[in-house]
Amino acid sequence: MNGWKKLSRTIATQSLKKKWAISSATAIFLSFAIMSIILYVALRGWLYQQEEQEVNRTMQDITSFFESQGPFLTVQDIQSNTGLMTSIVDKDQTVRLLNADGIEVLQINDSATFRDFDDIEVPEEGYVLTKEDKSSISAIGNVRLGRFKGYIQLEHPLKSFHSSNNYILTAMLLFSVCALLLSGWIGYILASYLLKPLKDLKMTMDDVVAHGFKKELTISYDAKDEIGELIIVYESMMAKLKYSFEQQQQFMADASHELRTPIQVVEGHLSLLNRWGKDDPEILVESLGIALREVSQMKTLIDEMLELARGEQVKDLPPTNIIEHTEEVIEELVQVYPAAYIEHELPDDRNLKVLISSNTYQQIIRNLLINAIRYSLEPANVRISYERTEKDVTIHVNDKGIGIEPQHVSKIFDRFYRVDTARSRDLGGSGLGLSIVKMLVENARGSIHVTSDPGNGSTFSVVFPLLK
C-alpha cells in the first residue's frame, strides 16, 4: 500500500508531458499485451489441432495399408511403400505392430519411447488418442491381417509444436517491449507537439508576472479545439485585466492630480491664516470661504469617483417611465436654477418605458441638464425632446450655450477631461459628470453621442431600447 502511494506521488510530481507519455505507453502496451495473449492462445490451440490431425492421418494411412495387404504382408512390402515410410520419418513419428498379447512384432522408426501397453485401454474398433504426456501424442488401435489380430501403436512427438510456441511467445514478448518503447516515444513527441500552446501560455503568464502588461499578450494558435478555446478565454480575460489595470492606473493618477489642487489651495489659505490672516476679518472670511468651496469640490469629486467605481457593475434593470421621471428632475432643477428656462416637448405617447432604474435615469438627465445650464449663456435656455422608433427612443437635450470645439467632442466623455480647465473649475466641474453619464447609459444597454456648434450650443442624444 505504501509502495502504491509512493508511486502515485512520484507520478503526480511529473510534468504533464511525461504523464501523457507514460499513460499512452501503458495503455498501448496493455492493449497489445491482451491482444497478444488472445492471439497466442488461439495459435497454440490451432497448432495443437494440426498435430492431432497429423496423428489421425498417419493412423488412418497405416491401418488402411496393413489391412489392405492381408495376411501375406511382409517387411519388404512395408519398405516398398516409400511414401508412407517417408511421411512417418519426416514427422519424427514412431510406429509399432503388436500381437494380441501386446508383444512387439514390427517397429517403424525408433525416435520415441512407447508407454507400457498394459496401461492403455484399447477400444473394440478404431483407435484412441492419449494426450496425458505434454511431450507427445499417443495413438493405439486394433488391426486385423487375415487371421492375425493385433494392435498398431503410434507415438507422435510435440517437439516442433513446442518450438513453434516458444518462437511465437518470444516474438510477441519482443514486440510488446518494442511497442512499449515506441508508444512511449511517440506519446512524448505528440505530447510535446500538442502541449506546445499550453507551454506558450505558461511563458506568457510568466512574462505578465515578471513585466506586467508592458509586453503584448499574443499566442499564435488557430485550432478550434479545447486548447484554442482556453487561449481565447485567457486572451479575453487578460485584455479585460489589462484594460482594468490601465484604467486603475489612469484613474489613480488623475484622481491624485485633481485632489492635489484643492488641497494645495486649502493648505495655502490655512497657512495664510496661521501666519497673519486670522487677525484680519476680511482675509479670514475670504480664506474660509475659498477653503470651504474647495472642500466642497473635493467632496463632490470623491462622491463622483465612488459613483463611477460602483457603477462598473451592471445591476438589475427594472422598467421606468422616462417621461414622468424627466418631469420630476425638471421640477427639482427649476428650484435650484430659477433663472434657467427648461422647455420639455412631450411626445404623443407618454408611456415610454425603458429597462433602467428610476434613480439611474434621473441621475443621467440631471447631469445632462446641469451641464447644459452651466455652459449656457445667461439666461440659460434648454430644450428636451424625444424621437421614437419601433425599437428605441432617443432623448435630446439641447442648449444655446458656448458649444464645444470639434477637437474636444471625442474626448468629453473621458474621465477628468475638461475643455477649459480654468472655466470648468470656476463652474464647479470635475470632469467626471459626463463619464458617469456614459457609464450609466451603457450599463442600461444604451448609447450617447453629442453634436455641437461652437458659439451656438450643443445637443446630447441618449438612445435607450424600448421595453416591448
UniProtKB/TrEMBL annotation:
This is Signal transduction histidine-protein kinase ArlS. It holds the Pfam family HisKA. The keyword Metal-binding does not apply. It is found in: Cell membrane. GO terms for cellular component: plasma membrane. Keywords: ATP-binding, Cell membrane, Kinase, Membrane, Nucleotide-binding, Phosphoprotein, Transferase, Transmembrane, Transmembrane helix, Two-component regulatory system. Residues 192-246 form the HAMP domain. The keyword Kinase applies. PROSITE patterns: HAMP, HIS_KIN. It comes from Paenisporosarcina quisquiliarum. It comes from the Bacteria.
